[in-house]
């Protein structure tokens, strides 16, 4: 679902910093070779993630859902020199593609890619994070939030993608597990006493939650 009319979206895209060539190549390969290529972040979302990262200047980032590695590269743009992205991906078959593009981006030493179920991996990750990005299976968004919030430093920022879910977040009759999970997540974040939140209607919706 397009939130904005096509001409407004095109105007917005034309006045947004262009997608770097490496990320354009990664997007193209994602669409050529992978199932569900629309899971990759749109260029505007990637530029937003990069800008937020540069503003926050994080030392540690936790990403839940790597897919082909696009958003990891965007998030790494603002890392401190000794910073690290820990990114979690359930599909081991994507490893070669992820690592190849991370190496081409020159961030292979700054990214720790861990393969497995994020629900199992997150509890074993030590330390605090400045920035958390959630873009994995939508049914488990509430659980990802509950698991990652204690690992987010006060003042840190959590971002979750696809929180409008093509409009199904607004439709109480949409009872598939993904739609139910997204609505539960949005309500959970909105009511949570430990965060200040903003649901931004960009692309498919981004939830920003800053820990108090």
In short:
The protein has a seven-stranded mixed sheet with strand order 3-2-1-4-5-7-6, sandwiched between helices.
Dominant shape: globular
Number of DSSP E strands: 7
Secondary-structure element order, N to C: HHHEHEHEHEHEHEE
Task: Give the low-confidence spans.
Answer: none
Q: Hey, roughly how much beta strand do the residues contain?
A: 15-25%
Largest sheet: 7 strands, mixed
The protein's oligomeric status is single chain
Quickly count the helices.
8
By helix and strand content, what is the structural category?
alpha/beta
Rg result: 16 Å
Distance between the termini: 33 Å
Strand order of the largest sheet: 3-2-1-4-5-7-6
In percent, how helical is the residue content?
A: 25-40%
Average pLDDT for all residues: 96
Secondary-structure blueprint of this entry?
Elements: H1 6-14, H2 21-33, H3 43-56, E1 60-64, H4 70-75, E2 84-89, H5 95-104, E3 111-115, H6 118-121, E4 129-134, H7 141-148, E5 152-161, H8 177-191, E6 195-200, E7 206-211
Parallel strand pairs: 1-2, 1-4, 2-3, 4-5
Antiparallel strand pairs: 5-7, 6-7
Helix pairs in contact: 7-8
